[in-house]
Structure prediction request, 842 residues.
Amino acid sequence: MTSKRNAFYAQSGGVTAVINASACGVIETARRHKERIGKLYAGRNGIIGALTEDLIDTSRESPRAIAALKHTPGGAFGSCRYKLKGLEENRLQYERLLAVFRAHNIGYFFYNGGGDSADTCLKVSQLGETLGYPIQAIHVPKTVDNDLALTDCCPGFGSVAKYVAVSIKEAALDVVSMAKTSTKVFVMEVMGRHAGWIAAAAGLAQAQESDAPHIILFPEIVFHQPAFLNKVKASIDRCGYCVIVVSEGVRRADGQFLAEAGTRDAFGHAQLGGVAPFIANLVKANLNYKYHWTVADYLQRSARHIASKLDVVQSYAVGKAAVELALKGHNAVMPTIVRKSDQPYKWGIGVARLADVANQEKSLPRDFISADGFGITAKARRYLAPLIQGEDYPPYKNGMPQYVVLKNAAVPKKLTIDFKV
Amino acid sequence: MTSKRNAFYAQSGGVTAVINASACGVIETARRHKERIGKLYAGRNGIIGALTEDLIDTSRESPRAIAALKHTPGGAFGSCRYKLKGLEENRLQYERLLAVFRAHNIGYFFYNGGGDSADTCLKVSQLGETLGYPIQAIHVPKTVDNDLALTDCCPGFGSVAKYVAVSIKEAALDVVSMAKTSTKVFVMEVMGRHAGWIAAAAGLAQAQESDAPHIILFPEIVFHQPAFLNKVKASIDRCGYCVIVVSEGVRRADGQFLAEAGTRDAFGHAQLGGVAPFIANLVKANLNYKYHWTVADYLQRSARHIASKLDVVQSYAVGKAAVELALKGHNAVMPTIVRKSDQPYKWGIGVARLADVANQEKSLPRDFISADGFGITAKARRYLAPLIQGEDYPPYKNGMPQYVVLKNAAVPKKLTIDFKV
Prediction:
């Protein structure tokens, strides 16, 4: 296919501090190939923008605004949690997508997301064969969870890793100051429902054994209350304080999430949400130490102000590579990060087939977790350490980071029929 | 008094991202006046170090290590939550303090803390008169709560203000990306037991009315559930999402904290936490919007990586000024920050009498809060905006900030009797 066709780009699933850097990579690269790629349309709120023909004309944005995406967190075009069903289950959806693509002469489909999104992208890539519409679908990897298969790491993860490691190091300096007469136990809840990558990254704050975090609770390790409480007590006996990082995905032996276990406070009120307060209360009830806890939630994945420079560079690189793969004629693939060496860290861009990526989850290997289940190993450190390298501060004005808000001008609709998602 | 005497410095109460910058100001200035000030001893864990004769010899630290305090969060010598009783109630405590001061020839007492600590400092300043021991006690202001009287702002506050404003701006970019199909309501809990200064600072993230935060809940404004829920709904109807900042100190009409934890700290203050999940659940139960919430807790006051440069400079300046006031013969005073103009922001150092500062609390003025009680006014903005100006990044190595850990070598004890605190 050599005729000039338009491209579609959308963001999918939970956004990150650097997903817009991938958008920037896609858009700037597409703009450099105007002989092959016409307009680049973004879906407003992900694939929903395609289904509802709610397209954004990115050509209306200045080069400066697009460049500013590189330092702007969140999803500049809106994202969504919406998974396409299989073709057999919902043929209407695919016919609608095709109608929109055809109406706007879209021949390139760039989808920026995690495992579910890779599956969506794979389904779109098959439209050429199954419905006779020529399209090239390229997935742009993104997920803070770092659980995508076949890529050494996931754009978005390095920045969360850095945020978590820096935050726990800072909070630990606070706790150790107060431990003599006040707070002895500090609990930080981090994301990662199914894989403990983010929790493991907190371990980078620990330079020597007595440093925080003293305990990390991983989704990969069944929570064993007596062993945990013993470890808390041992840490306080030895260091005077105990800093705990707990993944939201930690489970009991029966498979239930700790956070869903439900506890009651001193007044008998149901304890509201969060595995951090659950853990903190458990320690209080059994060991009677004064505690504080934090749930970073979205702060961890939007903290562009403390993003990993490497993560920003890699996020841009996969966006750029996605467009280059499309121009080389690829379909149903995803650019990957390939690690060439740990120290010095060297990396390059590879390619994976979406059929091998979609709906896979990469767990934290058991040998990344220490034998007692409460820390990370030297092997984990070798893997994780390069990913938080470098700072890449956004510009500031009047003390605040200058994040761009795009015009996001709508492309005039061409279809007469609305589609309900 | 012109003979050479030693000095005592201690950190008190909750620590901050910049209290060590004040320590740096005290130590570096004392070192420049060796003709008047002999050794500078720090109390290990605040005043407790004085009571237990657990003194740290800061002369054992290199100039480089002391300089690094300027970019290191937490309390480098340990802090405490411990309030001296009145002389009549516990004469033994004061006699013990005197014994330690006398044994180590301490003639200068620098106490770095908030309102409760100012009271302790005042009591120590009176030892000369009441127990016949000549000492000059100077208070060094510090509190993230910004509620100290007679100083325009409190060292420590500007950095929390910046953290909160930046974090809510970033999280809001995440929420607005997801709002179409997922999270519509985001709640961030911030510190501030009795005064809404920190909550107000979040308002700096709002450049125009549709920007986050859409609702701020202040301790100064009684929580009115129907008005709050109406405002949430109006925000979502208008903007598609709603970002809420809630102070831990928000109360019902009956005076009860919204999320009373039921425990009390060493000063008898109720220990708070968990109002964010309370608010989030309230919204869910009444309006059925999908929510996320965060409790930043210690992260907000230890986040040296995003400290306000002005705050760092002012924190250092009050430490330096405290020593200079002592050298000029002052006693029972506190250096203050004096604002000379808003725009351009100009400031200087003033002096306040501790008798006028101790146990006072400076509330957020009502005219800093908008008429509906859910936002800040232009007047508040004029006051707050200068305080978050400038970035002052710590040095990084291997992706992590390089914070100093001092040797904290103990001064050999001279007393034979131990003291139990």
Remarks:
- The first strand of chain A starts at residue 5 and ends at 11.
- Chain A touches chain B through 77 residues (CB under 8 Å).
